[in-house]
Every structure is written in structure tokens, then in C-alpha cells.
Amino acid sequence: MKRIYIREEYCMGCRLCEIHCLVQHSKSREIIKAYKGEYPKPQPRLIVEEKGYLSFALQCRHCEDAPCLEACITGAMYRDRETGAVLCDEDRCVGCWMCIMVCPFGVISRNLEGKKVASKCDLCMGEETPVCVRNCPNEAIVYEEKT
Amino acid sequence: MNYVIIGNSTAGVAAIEAIRECDKDGRITVISDEPYANYSRPLISYLLAGLVSADKMPYRTGDFYKDNRVELILSKRADRLDLETREVILQDGKRVPFDRLLIATGGIPIVPEIKGINLNGIFTFTRWIDAERIKKYIEDNGVEKALVVGGGLIGLKATEALMELGIKVTIVELADRILSATFDKKASKIIEDALSQMGCRLITSNTVVEFSGEGQKVEQALLRDEETVPADLVIIAIGVRPNVELPVHTPIKVNRGILVDDLMQTSVKDVYAAGDCCEARDALLNINRPIAIWPNASRQGKIAGYNMAGVRREYRGGFAMNSVELCGIPTISVGTTDPSALPGTGPEGEYEVLDHLDENRAVYKKLVLRDNTIVGAIFINDIDRAGIYTGLISDKVDVSSFRAHLLKEDFGLISLPKEYRKHLVTGEAIEI
Ligand SMILES: Cc1cc2nc3c(=O)[nH]c(=O)nc-3n(C[C@H](O)[C@H](O)[C@H](O)COP(=O)(O)OP(=O)(O)OC[C@H]3O[C@@H](n4cnc5c(N)ncnc54)[C@H](O)[C@@H]3O)c2cc1C
Q1: Would the pLDDT of B284 be above 80?
Q2: Based on the domain organization, do A55 and A24 belong to the same domain?
Q3: Of B363, B122, B372, B377, whose CA–CA distance to B235 is shortest?
């Protein structure tokens, strides 16, 4: 499957990926509204890690052998048959955080606004390329199929 | 190939998926004594509280059994195994032949032998039907006060559900604190305080010696110290034990649970076991023991399924872990959380503890280290990114080079040595 690959040596820590991710996962998909006026407050689905000159954006790896799928007690976490992406059906999620306990990348977060649900990267379902990748000015994250 | 699975829950369902992934043609028969296609056991407290509706109970929905071409035998108990003829004998005498068998019969709640235990209004709490019966009993009898016997995970989940329904709950726990199996003292205290604040009464270092009531219904419990606690509903939650009824009179070796090897095969060829009924390897303590939790049941079921279908996969061992919100406080506990309470695993001196307690915010984080690897963790209130530590525990990563960063606010993959980060993500993704 096509995955997001991270090239930390190219990351400048500009956090544009984070902004675009948040806007993409907002209701209005407009930056000002998304940041200032929406409830539940939208949340970025990726994490930018930064220490000194080193930085990178990290999002769900959509693991082949995904521990979150095994740990989910409601069936909310599932693998999309067509794309292979690991997705969370927020309607089924009860916010037990078993997935957070087992994700070795620490890329599932709690969305506590409104109904408590696990929040994670969905590879921007429906978009040709995830918005974090599309908007990265330095190709520090790329979206490709590797064998 | 004729696959038969006894038990249609976490382990059984995971096995179905693994078998079908490798064998598109084999016949899969699943036998369950419960009437439901499948449902999530941990959700029964949510169901009782009215937080989850009946239609959200199944965790594999729609055409799962049809798509996987599974023949489901529901509401029938497997009564006996005939290992000579390779058949499972159902309660109605029907014989189901197998080439490969998976025993995934789960656990049975432990019921203490106490005078009055058979009174009406006393329930265990592990099945959908328990939640339904409790709900009906509450409605029919206008229950106002409940007693929960056992302050472990299931007891506390039951407590929460009852409190959500406006019932006043008293917990009686034999140990000197609640959650003593998975938490340390400080963590227990945070939850105990929160429970008290919500109006739940907690009685520790004590137990029930008799239930009584006029007529057939429970009205009170007499405790060991002779206090009487009024209760028109009692939930018994003192633990579950592996359900080993089926193999017990067969050559299949059983200790506390059914013994399995790393392929999840029992001592009898072609007979496998997985989930709460078995004793698989504890990767941290290096012994075989039952660890009755969902992620282990699904992992084991999956490994069993692959091996049954002829695709060799080894179980790397599991360890205790749990994530639960109690009184609105998220908590995660993994592995060995309280070395001082460990029986027979060497002097406590071998373990080191790193912890951080912020009493005002009720935030508690603790890591237990042994030989420079993390072997246990507790997170209360701040649970974000806890899985990174679980991963370090699972992979037995030497943390000496980044030890100082372990409990820092900004701890992340970036704190890990580059090679490990690479290892973590190669094959899966990141190129670092
Ligand atoms: C209230 C509650 C909350 C929980 N919360 C959590 C949690 O938050 N996190 C977590 O990790 N774990 C939790 N657990 C534990 C988790 O549910 C179990 O570890 C898991 O369900 C084990 O799955 P299993 O497939 O091994 O067995 P089970 O789920 O016990 O299923 C076994 C099935 O086999 C059937 N069966 C048994 N014998 C026979 C027979 N002879 N013939 C036919 N059928 C038979 C049983 O009726 C049952 O349906 C919770 C459990 C309970 C009760």
C-alpha cells in the first residue's frame, strides 16, 4: 500500500503539516474557523517531534501487524479493505484508550471535545495525497508505494 | 481441512480471521454456548450504564461470519472432547468432527462459598446476560444500595455502571487497597480518593462472611469484622479463572489454565488453546501463566489460527496491561508495576523505579526498570503516548542511553537512539 515515509533530515520543523492536517479534519476546512470557531475543536492527526535541530512529523504508520487492531475492544479500529489504512470508526469508539496503550509510535491521541474518541491519521481518505505530504515545502514526508 | 473453534469471543474471532487469511477453502465451525453472534465483554459495563446500546455490542459486525464462511453453532455447549475419534460432543449429543481444534472457552467468574450466596439479587458480571439480568433486577426491585465484592477491574467497572444508574455503592475488598493486582499504592490511592469523592464507600482488608435477607432476596451482607452492610444488589467480582472444564478429563495438560507452547498448541497435537482459558508465556516473568486480557486473547487466537492453518507463527509472549477510565480518570498500567509486591522473583533491589507524582493534578507516572530495560509502567491522568513505553517493554530495549529523558514531558520517538527508531519503523514506514 501507499504509505507516508518520513525523511527527518529534510524536516525544517515548520509545522505546516500540522496546520493543514488540523484544517483538513475540521468541519469548515477553513483555517481561521478551524482554529478559532469550531466545536468540537478539530485536532491534528499527526505529531511533530522536535529537539534542537532535529524534527520530524509522525503519523500513524498503518502497520501491517497493527497492535491497535488487536487491542480494540469495540471493533472501532479497523483496516480499510481497499486502501489498507487503519481507521477509527468514531461512532463505535468508547474512549477506553486501549489503542493508546499499545501503539509503539504514540500516534493515537485522545479527542476529548464532544464524545471522547481516539483520534488518528486517516491518510486523508478521499484525497489523492494526504494534506501533510502535499503541503510539506521540503519533501520531508513523502507518500509512496515501496516494495 | 476441518477447523473447529469452541468459544466465539476475542480469541475465537481472532482465530477465524487468521485461518481465513491463509486457508480460503477449509471448513470452519464455531461453537458457542452463548446466543450472540459475538459481543465485546468489556462493553457490558457500558451497556448496563446505558452508555452503549445493544447494537454496538458486537465488535465484528454485518456479514462477518458469512464473509468468512463460518458455520456458527450458537446456544449449545460443547460437553466433551473425544480425542480418539477427534470429535467435539455437544450437549445434545451431536458430534462435530475436527482436524484441528481450538479451545477458546475463556474464563469463569470465581464465586466464593459464602452462606446465602444463592439468594436473589447476587450476580457475577462477565456476560451480556449478566448485565441484562442485573438491569432487570434493578428495575423490578427499585435497587438503591449495592455491594460490590472485589475491588479489581471488573468490580470497579460494575461500580461505575451502578453509580451511573444512581445507585449507592459500597465496595468490599480483601486486600488493603483496590486494584492491587495492577496498580501500586500511589495509583490505587488516586482512584480510591476519586471513588470516595463520588460517594462510593470503600471497605478494605475485609470480606463478606454471610449474605442474608427476608424471603429469597438479599438485603444485607455480614462482614468479617461483624459490620452489617445493607445491600439490595450484590455483584461478586473477586476474579476469573481459566475455564478448563473440557480438557480436564483428557490427556491435554492443564495447570491453572490449559498449557500451550509458543505455537499455542496444547500437549495434544492439532489441539490448540488461546485466550483466558490458557496459560501462555509471560514475556516479562518468563513463566507460563494465565493473563486474562483482551489484547493477549486476540493475539493468541490469531497465532493459533495461523498455526492451525499450517502457517508457522510464534507467540512472543504477552504481559499484563490494561487501560481503563475510572471515575473519569484515564489510567494505563503495564507489566510489573509494583516490584515490592512480587512473590518469588528475586530481591526488590534488582528493580529501579522512576516516578513523578503531581498531587494537585492527580497525575502520576511511574516506570519500573530492571537490568536497564523497562518492565512496568503506570500512567494516571496523563496517558498520552503511553504506548511508546509499552513498545520499549515489549522489545526489551536497553534504555541506558536515554534514561534521563524517559519521564520528560516531551519524551517521544525523538528521544530514542536513532538505530532503534529506524528499527521501529523499517518495514512499516519511516525512513530516518
Ligand atoms: C466486565 C469486563 C470488563 C473487561 N474489560 C477489559 C478491558 O478493559 N481490557 C482488557 O484487556 N480486558 C478486559 N476484560 C477481559 C476480556 O474481556 C477477556 O480477556 C476476553 O474476553 C477473553 O477472551 P476469550 O476469547 O479468551 O474468552 P471469553 O471472552 O471469556 O469467551 C469465551 C466464550 O466461550 C464460551 N464457552 C465456554 N465454554 C464453552 C463450551 N463448553 N461450549 C461452548 N462455548 C463455551 C463462553 O460462553 C464464551 O462466550 C474484561 C472482562 C469483563 C468481564
Answers
A1: yes
A2: yes
A3: B122
